[in-house]
Design a protein that fits this description.
Mean pLDDT: 91
Number of strands: 9
Order of helices and strands: EHEEEHEEHEHEHHEH
Low-confidence stretches: none
Helix content: 40-55%
Structural class: alpha/beta
Strand content: 15-25%
CATH superfamily: P-loop containing nucleotide triphosphate hydrolases
CATH class: Alpha Beta
Number of helices: 7
Largest sheet: 5 strands, parallel
Length: 195
């Protein structure tokens, strides 16, 4: 690895159920990209088999608000009432210190904030689902949330879809194999691996 390592940031944003997590997991398996996952912090409780420090940093509401006051976040958002998500600055610094490029699976607001803070180093990608109906089916199939929560996510999805043009690239996830190939090409190009 060269000594003049400049860490890049890859932001993947999309409405819940668009397939961004599947795409991000796929990219992380491609060793040539030298990617590491940025673990987000959240004030919500763990779901299912989620582990602290692996899926998220689970921080209680009071601590989360203290970290906001202390400017410890690269970006943060109150996604739902008293339900915060954010990226700790220390997380990006930790991964860059390991000479890794950082990949994010993050909501659209947070993704655009990271792009704004690091415009040259960031590739912001919006993953577009086939339709809002397809999203609803995917979310129901997961069966991890109540009907109310699903409806909240669907309402939010319409707003999020409107932000797609603000991203550097839009990947249409109508066919997963095609979407994976396209994202690999985007990442390789941004890392200038093809030169």
């Amino acid at each position: 690895m060269k000594d003049n390592f400049v860490g890049k940031l890859f932001v993947f944003s999309a409405p819940s159920g668009s397939g961004k997590t599947t795409i991000v997991r796929h990219l992380l398996k491609q060793e040539k990209f030298n990617l590491a996952f940025s673990i987000s912090a959240t004030s919500r409780e763990p779901r299912g088999f989620e582990k602290d420090g692996e899926d998220y940093y689970f921080i209680d509401l009071k601590d989360f608000k203290n970290k906001i006051r202390n400017d410890e976040f690269l970006e943060w958002e109150e996604v739902y009432r008293d339900n915060f998500y954010g990226t700790l600055k220390s997380e990006v610094e930790r991964l860059w210190a390991q000479k890794k490029h950082v990949i994010f699976d993050i909501d659209v607001v947070g993704g655009l904030r990271i792009k704004k803070k690091y415009p040259e180093q960031t590739l912001a990608v919006f993953v577009k689902p086939p339709s809002v109906d397809a999203l609803k089916k995917r979310l129901k199939k997961r069966s991890t949330e109540s009907e109310d929560k699903i409806n909240m996510r669907i309402a939010k999805a319409s707003v999020e879809l409107a932000t797609a043009p603000q991203f550097d690239e839009i990947i249409k996830n109508y066919d997963l194999e095609v979407a994976l190939k396209e994202t690999e090409e985007l990442v390789a190009s941004f890392l200038e691996l093809n030169k």
